[in-house]
Amino acid sequence: MYIPKMFQVEGGKEVKEFMQKNNFATVIVSEENVPYATHIPLLMEEKKEDIFFSGHVSIGNKLWKYIEKNKNALVIFQGPHSFVSSSWYEKENVSTWNYQAVHCYTEGRILTGEELEKQVSSLTQYYEKNMVNPRYYENLTDTFKQKELRGIMGFMLRVKDIQAAYKLSQNRNTTDYQNIINQLEKQTDQGSKGIAEEMKKRIPKTD
Predict the structure, then answer these.
(1) Of 99, 103, 78, nearest to 157 (Cα)?
(2) C-beta of residue 174 within 8 angstroms of C-beta of residue 204
(3) What's the pLDDT tens digit per position in 23-44?
(4) C-alpha to C-alpha distance for 39 and 103, rounded to whole angstroms
(5) Which of 206, 195, 204, 202 has its CA nearest to residue 98?
(6) Are 149 and 121 a contacting pair, CB within 8 Å?
């Protein structure tokens, strides 16, 4: 991913929290130089110094076949993003776009049997835990579980490299920076409001 130095974020606690918060990711693989993408929720797990992502797809989704054959996959986590108008600057300049994104380069393997069941159970636990009447995987009948398992394939991705870009007007002076926040907060879309919140966390102390 192309990242100007001032927008680059080193992998660490902040980036891990970002990936967990925005874990409906885009997983991209390729076959004979033709890209193939799937949008899917992933679970993150840390083992010693390694980071892993697990997920599952319908057996009809070719993603698992490409992972099984080619191993490598690019995982993209997208945060809030918004248009930034040049009319919000003190001086003449060009409009731009602010965003947060993390790319993970990974190698994968297929999950079957008990590993697949564990992945489905963990994913269900993660999303159902805050429901009023959670429906956990363990609450389903064995007949239903086995029927559903036959229709999916799981995978595990080990992260080899992380590239993170937070383009949040770090290149603007203090006056422009604060005005961008003010203007974004006036917008009605959630992306603009999300970027405004992220920029407020990083208000520069001096020009």
Answers:
(1) 103
(2) yes
(3) 999 999 998 889 999 999 999 9
(4) 14
(5) 195
(6) no
